[in-house]
């Protein structure tokens, strides 16, 4: 719900949710919000986010992280300062390597 006014992609959300601004369609937005469904989450989760991501604001990752931690789900939140939504494709080389190592380490821990 909070992404509507803070994302550079908010125009698409109106099309997806019936060409209405979110304050006119709160029930539909809440029904489709990941936070509404967090209560059943139990899968270990790695959240990777860039501070300068204007497509998916940082607060979205923060909200998911806090909800999962409160549920007791093993969760890690990795934040990359001064990187954008395109970190995996166009971020600084060193940070792209760190990102891949975080993913590989998480998979190594949970997918063996």
Overview of the structural elements:
The protein has helices at 10-16, 26-31, 58-70, 87-90, 93-110, and strands spanning 45-50, 75-80. α3 links the parallel β1 and β2. By secondary structure, the protein is an alpha+beta fold. The chain has two domains: 1-32, no CATH class; 41-110, no CATH class. A two-stranded parallel sheet has the order 1-2.
List the helices and strands and how they pair.
Elements: H1 10-16, H2 26-31, E1 45-50, H3 58-70, E2 75-80, H4 87-90, H5 93-110
Parallel strand pairs: 1-2
List keywords for this structure.
about 110 residues, 2 domains, two-stranded parallel ribbon, 5 helices
- Percentage of β-strand residues: 5-15%
Total number of beta strands: 2
What is Rg?
Answer: 16 Å
Strand order of the largest sheet: 1-2
**Class per helix and strand makeup:** alpha+beta
Mean pLDDT: 85
User: Helical residue percent?
Assistant: 40-55%
Number of domains: 2
- Sheet with most strands: 2 strands, parallel
What is the overall shape? flat
In short:
By secondary structure, the protein is an alpha+beta fold. It contains five helices and two strands. The relative contact order is 0.14.
């Amino acid at each position: 719900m909070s992404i509507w006014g803070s994302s550079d992609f908010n125009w698409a959300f109106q099309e997806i949710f019936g060409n209405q601004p979110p304050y006119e369609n709160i029930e539909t937005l809440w029904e489709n919000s990941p936070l509404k469904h967090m209560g059943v989450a139990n899968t270990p989760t790695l959240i990777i986010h860039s501070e300068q991501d204007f497509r998916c604001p940082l607060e979205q990752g923060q909200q998911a992280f806090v909800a999962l931690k409160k549920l007791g789900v093993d969760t890690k939140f990795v934040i990359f300062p001064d990187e954008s939504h395109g970190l995996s494709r166009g971020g600084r080389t060193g940070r792209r390597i760190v990102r891949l190592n975080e993913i590989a380490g998480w998979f190594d821990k949970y997918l063996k």
